[in-house]
């Protein structure tokens, strides 16, 4: 093998297609996340081809040297590595269908959000057309793009992940979860389950604080203190949940019901909507009525699963 052939293979293995000596990538979707990703690739010296339904969003990136493709098909045809940053998989399928004839031999890194089953569907659909698919679940907002301490879940063929790792790491650190295309979305969605419910709880508590004359900035250190205590609880409960141990030796659901009733009364007396804590209190109460009053709050895990 010649030196030139060796270098060409090495570049291909790293997920890079050369264009004028530069690694190259196509990025489709220029919302806030896509704009940040395109900027990161330009910063890293990539030749970047773009496409977006609203072409004006690309103006600043084109001024920096990116190429705006006339349509999705041309964008996909431009590079072997195609990164999608779209609202959901419906939008992704619409774009890919418009470029169906250009998909063979491409690797599509789909960073759009949707369900694990939609990710599996996309992987099958692309495989039937001769393309590879890596599912991604980005764990940070646009401001976290381009930072190695940030992270994105990936799943799909390990060989594709290894081949394109250098390009993926331009965006964030890469956390490979396995061959199943649905795994990255699963990890992403369970993190979103935790994130949104936690953030909603903070916002609700802040509303109660403000209704009682405590400004959000005055409440902040107390909210932060409670949030900082949660990792300790998680570390304590996780091995017990894994072992199926829901013994009420530390906490009991009956205690939780009493506590949440006090929360609901305080919230409603403050003139704040009590739907959120009342829903939680009702959930605890149903578990008690099902005979789990003396068990730990962790007994909600099998109950949530319908066991």
Supply database-style keywords.
307 residues, alpha/beta, nine-stranded mixed sheet, 54% helix, elongated, disordered N terminus
By secondary-structure content and strand pairing, the structural class works out as alpha/beta
The beta-strand count equals: 9
Helix content: 40-55%
Distance between the termini: 60 Å
User: Radius of gyration, Cα only, in angstroms?
Assistant: 24 Å
The major sheet is characterized as: 9 strands, mixed
**Element order, helices and strands?**
HEEHEHEHEHEHEEHHEHHHHH
- Strand proportion, as a percent range, falls in 15-25%
Describe the global form: elongated
Helix segment tally: 13
Uncertain parts: 1-19
Rounded mean pLDDT score: 93
What's this model, at a glance?
The chain is α/β, with parallel strands linked by helices and about 300 residues long. The chain has helices at about 5-15, 30-45, 60-65, 70-80, 90-100, 115-125, 160-165, 165-170, 185-210, 215-240, 255-270, 275-290, 300-305, and strands at about 15-20, 20-30, 45-50, 65-70, 80-85, 105-110, 130-140, 145-155, 170-180.
């Amino acid at each position: 093998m010649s030196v030139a052939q060796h270098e060409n293979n090495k570049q291909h293995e790293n997920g890079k297609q050369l264009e004028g000596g530069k690694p190259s990538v196509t990025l489709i979707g220029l919302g806030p996340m896509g704009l940040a990703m395109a900027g990161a690739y330009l910063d890293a010296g990539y030749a970047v081809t773009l496409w977006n339904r609203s072409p004006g969003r690309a103006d600043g990136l084109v001024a920096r040297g990116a190429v705006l493709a006339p349509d999705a098909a041309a964008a996909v045809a431009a590079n072997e590595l195609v990164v999608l940053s779209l609202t959901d998989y419906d939008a992704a399928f619409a774009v890919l269908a418009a470029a169906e004839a250009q998909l063979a031999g491409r690797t599509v890194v789909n960073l759009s959000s949707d369900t694990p089953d939609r990710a599996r569907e996309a992987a099958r659909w692309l495989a039937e057309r001769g393309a590879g698919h890596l599912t991604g679940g980005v764990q940070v907002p646009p401001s976290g793009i381009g930072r190695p301490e940030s992270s994105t879940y990936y799943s799909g063929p390990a060989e594709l992940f290894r081949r394109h790792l250098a390009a993926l790491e331009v965006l964030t650190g890469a956390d490979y979860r396995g061959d199943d295309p649905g795994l990255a979305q699963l990890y992403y969605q369970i993190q979103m389950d935790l994130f949104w419910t936690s953030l909603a709880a903070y916002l609700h508590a802040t509303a109660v604080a403000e209704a009682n004359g405590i400004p959000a900035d005055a409440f902040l250190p107390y909210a932060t203190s409670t949030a900082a205590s949660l990792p300790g609880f998680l570390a304590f409960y996780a091995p017990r949940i894994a072992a199926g141990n829901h013994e009420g030796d530390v906490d009991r659901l009956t205690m939780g019901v009493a506590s949440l009733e006090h929360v609901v009364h305080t919230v409603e007396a403050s003139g704040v909507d009590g739907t959120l804590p009342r829903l939680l209190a009702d959930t605890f109460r149903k578990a008690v009525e099902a005979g789990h009053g003396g068990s730990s709050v962790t007994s909600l895990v099998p109950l949530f699963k319908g066991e």
